[in-house]
C-alpha cells in the first residue's frame, strides 16, 4: 500500500453516545486532526472505504424504524455525511478489498450486501439464528465469512450471493464451522501457504485456525482469558490476541498446513501489559501495533521491545472501533491524484430496487479535470450506468473516458480471474475428496469380499465336520 507522505492517522469512535463522535489523531505527534460529531458504533462497525470514505454503522440513531443507520463521510469533506437508514439496525460492517461491496450484519441474524456505486441492495438473507458479531471478506474477495453471538461461523460464496437467478432465495452455504462455544469476537482471512486460511477468536478463550476451502479445523490455541480482538503483523507471522482483562498475547502463527514455514511447537506467548480493561480492537500501522480498550485509551506499541511508544487518551468514552488511514486522505483532492482513484458512493437502498438510482451521491473528483467534462456524470458506477457514461464521454474524446474504460476492463478481468481461480481450487479439492471416497469404498468392498470368503470357508468346514461325524458308528 503506497501512502504518500508516509504519515498516518488514527481514527477511533465509541459506542457510548452519539454525541461522542469520531476522533482522528496524528500517529506521530499525537495531535488531534479532526473531530466528526454524531457517531456511535458497536464493535466492527467502522471501516475505511478505498482510503477516501469512513463508513460507520450507527446505533440508537433516531430516524430509522429499526433504530439504526449507516453514515458515510468523505474524508476530504467530512462535514456532509451520506445518511442511510436500512430496514433494521446494523452492527458489524465490512467492505470488499476493491471497495465494490459493503456488507452489514444485524442483531436479528440477517445479513445485507450493497453495491457501493449505485447503493443497490443486492441480497438480504437470514445468515444466523443469533446476532451477527463480525463479517469479513476472504483475502481474494471470493468468500464472505460471518460470525455470530452463539459461536457459529458461516462461510458464503460470493458467486452464490451475487447470482441474479437466485435473487430472493436463500444463498448456498459453503461451510458451517461449529467449534467455538461462545461469541465470535474476531475473524481474519489470509491467503496461507497452500490454501486460504481463516483465524477466529471467541469469548471462549480460544483462537482457531481453519482451512477455508475444506472447512476443516487446523489448530486451536487456548488462552487464560476470553479473547476480544485479534490482529496479524504485516508479515503474517505473529498473532496478537487481546483479552477481556487487558492483556495482549503474542504468539507465532501456526496454520497447521503441510509445508507451512511457521509450523512451530506451541510455547508460552509473550504478554503485553498496558491496558486495565478489555481490549476492543487491534490494528497495525507502519509504526507498530495499535491497541484500543474500554479504559478509554489507545496505545502504539514497539512490538520488538514491548514498549508503549505513544498513548492516546479518549476521555469521552470507551474506544470500540479503530482504523489506521493515510494522513493524506484528510487533505483536499490535489492535481497529483490519479483520476482512476476517484469514485463516488450512493445512498444505500432500504429495500431491493428493480433499477438503479443516481440520487444522493457523494463524489470525489480531481481538481485537474477540464471544465468541458460534465463532472456529475463521472464516477464509479454499476456496469450498466458506467458503460453508458463511457459512451457519452467518448463523444467528447476526453482522455478521462479512455482511462475509465481501461480501468473498468482491467477490474472486470481481475474479478473474473479471481472467480476462476476460486472455482478451480474448489474443483481440485472436490476431485481429491472424491478420489478419497472411491478409494475408501474400494477398500471396504475388498474387506467385505474377504469376509464373505472366510465365512463361506468356515461354513463349508463346519458342514464337512458334521458329515464326518454322522458317518461314524454309534455305540450303545
Summarize the model shown.
The protein has 476 residues and is of the alpha+beta class.
What does this molecule look like?
The protein is α+β, with helices and mostly antiparallel strands and 476 residues long. It has a domain at 8-330: Methylamine Dehydrogenase, Chain H (7 Propeller). Helix content is 19%, strand content 35%. The protein is built from three helices and 30 strands. Strands 3-2-1-28 form a four-stranded antiparallel sheet, with no helix packed on it. Helix 2 (383-394) packs antiparallel against helix 3. It starts with 7 loop residues before the first strand and ends in a 5-residue tail after the last helix. The model is unreliable at 1-5, 258-265, 333-340, 355-359 and 365-382 (pLDDT under 50). Residues 457-476 are annotated as: Disordered. One of its GO terms (cellular component) is nuclear pre-replicative complex. This is Protein ROOT INITIATION DEFECTIVE 3-like. It comes from Vitis rotundifolia. Keywords: Repeat, WD repeat.
